[in-house]
Amino acid sequence: MARPRRRRVAFFFFLTVALVTTTILPAAGAQGATEADVLIAFRDTLRGADGAPPGPLRNWGTPGPCRGNSSSWYGVSCHGNGTVQGLQLERLGLAGALPDLAKLAVLPGLRALSLADNALTGEFPNVSALAVLKMLYLSRNRLSGVIPEGTFKPMRGLRKLHLGFNDFSGPVPGSITSPRLLELSLANNRFEGPLPDFSQPELRFVDVSNNNLCGPIPSGLSRFNSSMFAGNRLLCGKPLDVECDALGAPRRGMSTMMKIAIVLIVLGLVLCAVGITSGVIGGRRRRKPRRAAAEGMPGGDQTPSNPKLNTAPAVNIENAASTSQPRAAAAAGGAAAAKRQRRDEHGRLVFIQEGRTRFEIEDLLRASAEVLGSGNFGSSYKATLCEGPAVVVKRFKDMNGVGREDFSEHMRRLGRLSHPNLLPLVAYLYKKEEKLLVTDYIVNGSLAQLLHGNRGSLLDWGKRLRIIRGTARGLAHLYDELPMLTVPHGHLKSSNVLLDGSFEAVLSDYALVPVVTSQIAATVMVAYKAPECSAAQGKPSKKSDVWSLGILILEVLTGKFPANYLRQGRQAGTGDLAGWVQSVVTEERTGEVFDKDITGARGYEADMVKLLQVGMGCCEVDVDQRLDLKTVIARIDEIREPELAAGAGAGEESSSSS
User: Which pTM does this prediction carry?
Assistant: First the structure.
């Protein structure tokens, strides 16, 4: 009997080996592919309007996607160890069926994936292989169908899920309640049935508005704003002003809160009527004594040459708000009205970046603030919120070129821009007297601060070349996405070129010309300093931003501050930084042009001269002779980027570059 048992054991052993082999070998083959190979294979499954991968992704190639925590590949972000961290392929016009996301499972560090704001179709993808994914954004596509119940069960670390503005239907899967969930957006779909129970203490944003949901709102969601549940006529319970009956359906008839509100309003009206009546009676009683007193006072006659003015004392705005609001609240029926009034007076922040942590203007007022700068155009502050990263708040007083509706539409247009070299607009506030723009805080500050703050030695030749290259690419994206604007940036200067942790250029304060008055634009905006604007009826051209880029290139190479070379009443092209550079080069003193603080320049002197020539070509006074932006980028890309030099040789190269 022992022999059949050994035969059976041997059979199961070889069966197990066969199964393991067929399972492991494909995985090993996948692991043999580099992250670059995986991303390029995934890109090749994407289709734009022309049936090919979108233009920004066609530049993916060598070198690989990551160099430390920075990436030269569009839409790719990286961990510090050089592995892919996130993939942001938003607003690329992607069409057709949603690609197979499981192909990305072999990227071990992938934590964030966004294909939002495209035109992708099909059912919800199989994400079971993406167990370590923390953030998934598929909003504003054309996805449809029922999401299976156990879809999100493997994703125990899921933090943010945004599926709004699609056509999903069926019940909300119970597995969506990941234990670490922070944000959930299911708005504007066709989900139906009850909401699953949410008990995550860290959950801070939920939006399920405009679906076909029904039943009581789970207690774990009752702390959120009622607008997050609007458009579901069969939902009931807090925070909605609709009570649930014994069967969990909305109770018909007037709710308790509505009854309380009506009683308070009626009570307020009665109190107002009593106050008015008392005032009239008291006024009649006081009229005669007041008249008699006036007649008995010396000099009491009111004449055109001796008027009497009854003026109210000056009151601080904040104090006025604190004293007048409770009275208005009492008349309207309680503290809720006072809160609404404060919100209306301060205005409200409008967020245009999906998936961002929301905060109110009151949070900014309470945050610790640091003044970053102040100029003719506005002031900027760094605000460190109690929760979330630091943000920058820019305050503009002369931004009244358009009304509220046009301003909001332009801000939404800017919010749709996405490029590694553009600073995203997070939120804005519109008030008639001033506007606030909220952006992320960029750690290394502005290029101007480093160049002219005795820290220019931090910017070696390689960094300066990359900064110029990134600036040009960001500007080109503005030209591509905002073709209706004569000057897509309009205010390109070194203080509006920010530097991230890897010293990559990030452009700020772009595309603001449409929302400022023509007088402010002509007085403040850098593009309006171009030579073509100096004539009596001069106005900017499509190449005025190119002129600004040329001045920036010369500033980076020379270390000279351009404003020191601008003179009022100058002849075009003779009184600016370009004129100074031209005069030095003409006298064959080119070596004196370059900033003495540039390190790492040994062996790259010819490349520096090439970039200088590009800058001069951008600053041609004759617009027809001035380089166009495509030519500028092509010529910059031809300049070789220096290899990373060893730290030991940096000081030695510093002297040679001078």
Answer: 0.50
